[in-house]
Amino acid sequence: MDTVLEIRNLCKSYHDFSLQNINMSLEKGTLTGFVGPNGAGKTTTIKSILNIIKPDDGKITVMGMDSIINDLEIKSLLGIVLDDGHFYEDMTLKKMKSLIAPMYPTWNDRAYQTYIKKFELPENKKIKDLSRGMRMKYALVFALSHDAELFILDEPTSGLDPLVRNELIEILKDIVFEDNKTVLMSTHITSDLDKIADYLFFIFDGKIILQGQKDEIKDQHAIVKGDTGALLPDYESYFVGINKSAYGFEGLTDNKAALKKVLPDKTAYEVPSIEDIMLYYIRRHNNGLKFS
User: Where is the ABC transporter domain (predicted)?
Assistant: First the structure.
């Protein structure tokens, strides 16, 4: 497969936060979820990819091109949907389009009109009067109207109601599966990625703490429930984290196959959600303890 985005040893430090040796690779025709709590480093990474901020160290290539040297050429190949929109609030949608469209040599006005109608966006309405869901759709219209190869989305579904979120998720599925485009989606709403992600990168406190194919990560892990009396001290190494009470234990294992060989058959194993996995890893990194 062709590598569309490659990040190597990306570092960026502020007075109260540092991004530490981020490595990431995206293949063509895939959707990668970039997940972590607010403040973990997702937006700093994305702004580095977009050349909005200058990293302290590391290298980023997009379609084989250096992100700094080939900045303008790369921008024409990106479909960007940022959390804060970056639109002029007092402009109508039609006026905003007339301002932005000439910036793209591959602008396709027929595609633009198609998506404006499909998303039922009122072109004569001012941007400040749009709902958050309509703003996200409008940003996607621009991304879809200039033949972008890589879509970079920063918290696109945050603050949206479930119906609008589901609609946007279906649009992203179409982008990847029908058009063979590549998507990097940064979010802390992990339930969206359960439906559509191919790959996952978990970031916490400026570091990637888990990465891989989504299905492989979920298959490797399991939510385990059972009798606390069945737990021996040697079993700690099988768990990312575990909670014990008078009624039993519940924990997350990162080695389901090995654990099944040592725990009783009556122990229950459940498929974890992405959120389950993320929360257990965050708790472990926060307090350094696996058992509580």
Answer: 5-230
